[in-house]
Amino acid sequence: MHLTALLTALFLASPLLASPASAQVRLVDAGIICPRESEGEFVDAPGTESGFIRRIRQGLAFDLPDRTVPTMDQLSFGFRTTLKAGAATTPVTVVVTHPPMGERGIEREEWTDVMTPDASNLNLFTFEMDYEKVPGPWTFSIEIDGQPIVTVPFEVTETENQGRVERACFQFMS
Which ranges carry the DUF3859 domain (predicted)? Predict the structure, then answer.
């Protein structure tokens, strides 16, 4: 499994939390990225099924703002957050929860990241292995000191929304 994490940096602010850091974080966008060749370095992430993530190059944009994700090969989905300008650099934990996956039945995967002002963070999951294609509710979140600051739900399905995604991604599919 490859969790795809991109540090391109602008983060989400949740007015419901009292932490000063949480007031500096905000959601920019979320959705689906069509299948493309993944570029980026592998980084150790022991809190994931595979034990690593791929830190993606900058510049990827969401092709669809959808939160209903079909289990298509190489399809990516996730969210982009930012840290407000002038805020202090902030260590965060990126968390992805999903139905049981892999031989160990993993339901929570996480890795650490550092958010910096004036930069966006793109955190993605890409379906690269068959065992990763687990239908059901998925959630991406940013946590600071164990508290969720930004949470974005998705629904992964075997076929729902596949036609719309295929039409949007036609140029990227072989």
Answer: 24-156
CATH number at residue 134: 2.60.40.2390
Q: What is the DSSP letter of 10?
A: -
The span from the CA of 2 to the CA of 66, in Å, is 21
Per residue in 11-41, pLDDT (tens digit) is: 233 333 345 666 688 999 999 999 977 677 7
Number of folded domains that form the chain: 1
Whole-number pLDDT of residue 23: 65
- Edge to edge, the sheet with strand 90-101 lists 68-70, 147-157, 136-144, 90-101, 106-115
User: 164: which DSSP letter?
Assistant: H
Q: Name the residue range of residue 166's domain.
A: 2-172
Q: Which tokens hold the place of 150? A: 């930004």
> Considering only CA atoms, which of 96, 99, 72 is closest in space to residue 148?
96
pLDDT band per the 50, 70, 90 thresholds, residue 56? confident
The Cα 76–Cα 149 span in angstroms is: 22
